[in-house]
Amino acid sequence: MNFSLGIKVLMVTICALLSALIGIGAGWMSHTPGARKRDAVLFGGGAFGGSLTLAVLVLAAIGVL
């Protein structure tokens, strides 16, 4: 597929926003009362990085990017 640069940037932005939501949800779900908050933040950051990498790789594999 031959998309313009604007569409490709839009797709990556959508992937980043969805990955941010996944990271926030993962961090929120991993937090336990009485535990340090930085552990939940690190877990959420890892989930964000992993989901963004996966989404971009899938888009690249199917030829969108």
Quick synopsis:
With 65 residues, the chain is an all-alpha fold. It has helices spanning 5-30, 37-61.
How do the strands and helices of this protein lay out in sequence?
Elements lengths: L4 H26 L6 H25 L4
Helix pairs in contact: 1-2
What does this structure look like?
With 65 residues, the chain is an all-alpha fold. It is built from two helices and no strands. It has helices at 5-30, 37-61. Helix 1 runs antiparallel to helix 2 (37-61). It starts with a helix and ends with a helix. The model has no long low-confidence stretch (mean pLDDT 94).
Task: Report the order of strands and helices.
Answer: HH
Assign the structural class, choosing from mainly alpha, mainly beta, alpha/beta, alpha+beta, or little secondary structure. Answer: mainly alpha
Counted by DSSP, the helix tally is 2
Q: Can you give the mean pLDDT? A: 94
Q: In which range does the helix fraction lie?
A: over 70%
